[in-house]
Design goal:
binds glutamine, Amidase signature (AS) enzymes, alpha/beta, 15 helices
Length: 481
């Protein structure tokens, strides 16, 4: 499969047209997506128009288009003014935003071509893409299995070669977990690196947009395009974007890799464990040094996350009232019934469960016991990482405790589903960057991912290590049948 880096080079040099690149992506979508269900909306006309424009820019001598002609899929919780943005929810059925997200402006500016919007768990709440009101997405490695979530559609688009790149969002693992389960690379950047202007809010102190790609180099290229300060997101950090691609080939000898017992304990599948341990051996072979570290508060991460994320969600999702956006209940008796019936009809089960949990955690009398306490635990988790990063450059772990599970396997057991995020959630709570890189397959040919976490703003270092690992292994060359 051709990479984004190769497409952009060929389009810039004139040996391939952006139109051809986009047409080939659109025809793969037509061929495969009816059986995979990755896309909620394909914007064929818009994509071809954009491609024609990029081709004209190239003919006019424009050279600064890092993603010239590269087709990209966008998770459907990122606003696009040329295509619906539904968050896979009935409550935003047919909603077309009046503006596009900051990342969409950046992509367009870089010459990328947006070909469609991808499926997700409703409002990004879930780990399997089964909570979508628009139907499920299947894992291309085994169509009876989930692709992970919530950015399942974006992961599948990349894994099956429908697009070389996709954007996801990650509140507790929604980029890394599906990346791991579908055998692609996914990066959750440091909190504040990528503007969330135009990202539909879920947990505002946790949400980040990030890249998904088949190679580390492509993910680095995409990350470099979307980072940077934006005054429209008050949490956006005023920092210049480093050149992530420039550091790819640095040697990693002497780098210190932290291994935490807490990430290799109970619940970890044996084959996943050995694949990750083997990958760590490969890093040692490249001259890296391993150091045992402790992250003692890890056991509280899931409870802490599911209080904070749901509390923030209950506040963020208060805006869906049947008045401003999307679904409105018919013939309500009064304004209160308009609100409650619109929400009752518009939200799915899991979203309702979380809104009730979050509202409860914030309610007077319970605030101190739940929300405030979770915030204190969050500080302890952050301090665990600060202490660890005083001695190591990066922490390596599995991304997920198991490979892709069967469709329907966890839908009746929300707690079992929440446990799929056990290794990914802490990075969001601490605000640090983390990525997943493919590191092998289990005996049934399902992909396994390794997670790398680093101190804030150390993306370059993570990408460097991941790339060096990737070129010493050959996992990314394998594609689903
Ligand atoms: N699976 C987690 C949740 O359900 C994480 C979701 C995400 O990162 N958006 O909240």
């Amino acid at each position: 499969m051709i990479t984004a880096t190769e497409i952009a080079k060929s389009v810039r040099s004139g040996s391939m047209s952006a139109r051809d690149a986009v047409q080939s992506s659109l025809s793969r979508i037509k061929e495969h997506d009816s059986s995979l269900g990755a896309f909620l909306f394909v914007c064929e006309d818009h994509a071809l128009e954009q491609a024609t424009q990029v081709d004209a820019q190239i003919r006019n001598g424009q050279t600064d288009l890092p993603l010239a002609g590269v087709p990209i899929a966008i998770k459907d919780n990122i606003c696009t003014d040329f295509a619906p943005t539904t968050c896979a929810s009935k409550i935003l059925n047919n909603f077309c935003p009046p503006y596009s997200a900051h990342v969409i402006e950046k992509l367009t500016h870089a010459g990328a071509i947006i070909v469609g919007k991808t499926n997700l768990d409703e409002f990004a709440m879930g780990s399997s893409t089964e909570n979508s009101a628009k139907g499920i997405t299947r894992n291309p490695w085994d169509r009876e299995r989930v692709p992970g979530g919530s950015s399942g559609g974006s992961a599948v688009s990349v894994a099956s070669g429908m697009t070389p790149l996709a954007l996801g969002s990650d509140t507790g693992g929604s980029i890394r977990q599906p990346a791991s389960l579908t055998g692609v690379v996914g990066i959750k950047p440091t909190y504040g690196c990528v503007s969330r202007y135009g990202l539909v809010a879920y947990g505002s102190s946790l949400d980040q947009i990030g890249p998904m790609a088949r190679t580390v180099e492509d993910a680095a290229l995409l990350l470099g395009t979307i980072v940077g300060h934006d005054a429209r997101d008050s949490t956006s950090v005023a920092k210049n974007a480093p050149d992530y691609v420039a550091n790819l080939s640095n040697p990693i000898a002497g780098k210190k890799i932290g291994i935490a017992r807490e990430y290799f304990g109970e619940g970890l599948d044996a084959q996943t464990r050995s694949a990750v341990e083997f990958a760590i051996e490969v890093l040692r072979g490249l001259g890296a040094e391993t150091v045992e570290i402790e992250l003692p508060h890890t056991k509280y991460a899931i409870a802490c996350y599911y209080l904070i994320a749901t509390a923030e969600a209950s506040s963020n999702l208060a805006r869906y009232d049947g008045v401003h956006y999307g679904h409105r209940s018919e013939n309500p008796r009064d304004i209160f019934e308009l609100y409650s019936a619109s929400r009752e009809e518009g939200f799915g089960r899991e979203v309702k469960r979380r809104l009730m949990l979050g509202t409860h955690a914030l309610s007077s009398g319970y605030y101190d016991a739940y929300y405030l306490r979770a915030m204190k635990v969050r500080t302890l988790l952050r301090k665990d990482f600060e202490k660890a990063f005083a001695n190591v450059d990066v922490i390596c772990s599995p991304t997920t405790p198991t490979t892709a599970f069967r469709i329907g396997e966890k839908t009746d057991d929300p707690l079992a589903m929440y446990l799929a995020d056990i290794y990914t959630i802490s990075a969001n709570l601490a605000g640090i960057p983390a990525m997943s890189v493919p590191c092998g397959f289990d005996s049934t040919d399902l992909p396994i991912g390794m997670q790398l976490m680093g101190p804030a703003f150390s993306e370059s270092n993570l990408i460097n290590i991941a790339h060096q690992y990737e070129i010493s292994s050959n996992h990314f060359e394998r594609v689903p049948g």
